[in-house]
């Protein structure tokens, strides 16, 4: 057969936002809710500086500046030692020994989480209007990974942190991502840790040793423009916006919960000193939420995050005596949620990396079956079909073959349903024919398929090629498929909602809820 007809389930309504009374369509409801169909662009460009430098990950200068992750993987990762020196410096300056920030929230409060924010271009600023609307009444926000691309430079904080969030009236805390470490975390420590001074130089390594080669190739921090940083700080200078954290990893006691933030460095692991602190701060009956630079469940796989000296971060999260109810990680630039059964209790593992950087594909995620989580339990944004349609347009433009490569949103949904053997995620008004061309393009773009079927050939979208192609294919017009979280805490439960930001006016005015879950605390 040349094609198959696939129809969908009846339409479903989305969830409302706390600040409005009407119900907004999400991408699960309508094509317009996903941001397609040439909708009216939002007002986010009014927030942007007059001149925006577009970050290209295909630029050799950018790749060379961001080389430290590769160098660390070849010649040894110095992140743990450098982190220990930062922590010791903060302790000497009077930071609390337990690294716990004690806030005065009542038993009911709300906070925001947004990950991988700092590219400083359209896709980051497109998040801001909806973020400000959905965050009304929240006590603070947390950035989960990669505050500042490409290398965490001090000079970039003005356009990539202070300016975008200048109108958010509450404090912002952060855990660093790998890009924040590309200049040895110096800028991050200055902005978030009470203007921490630079570290003293380390002794020169023995010639021709691995450490010597690493030092030879290492990207060093560039001198900061102090006037530029001072001007940037004025954008978030109100007393209610100020926050000082005790180091790159920390805990926040707020109302009935403890939020634990860890620093996974360049390579997605933590050092022994931080591991001992994590085990200590995780003790006690208080419900806990982990925020980490590297997610523990992502793309249908389990990444428990090794601790130097033995054990993993997920061992700590799973231990019943620690009472973790959720683990939220950045690094991957989309939204995913895995409600994992851990010895009879559910821990919500969340990926929240859609806060502003280029979009990582979701159509490459296989049919989910991991940690007792099935496809019916799993949630992601963008939807796989929208991701496939988005990437088909990118490849079509890059290869100058738009007529061949472009797949419509409806065709994307239909071929995903066919390949994974799942119902359509979004209803179609009319049945859609899945043609040979659509199947071919879906295969070439790395679309996942049922485990019992293997593709003969596909472009390496998810693996090595994603590191080069998808960052280099950032778009500067909607839909962007960005996202952020709002968590509403009561003594009984945490209500977690994933809001979408497409760059279109409709989603600015009323940010749609793409996923929602209530997490019991008792």
From TrEMBL:
Read off the InterPro entries from this record: Calcineurin-like_PHP (IPR004843), Metallo-depent_PP-like (IPR029052)
- Give coiled-coil spans as residue ranges: none
| Residues annotated as domain Calcineurin-like phosphoesterase | 110-334
Q: What is this protein called?
A: Metallophosphoesterase
Single GO term (MF):
hydrolase activity
- Cleaved signal peptide residues: none
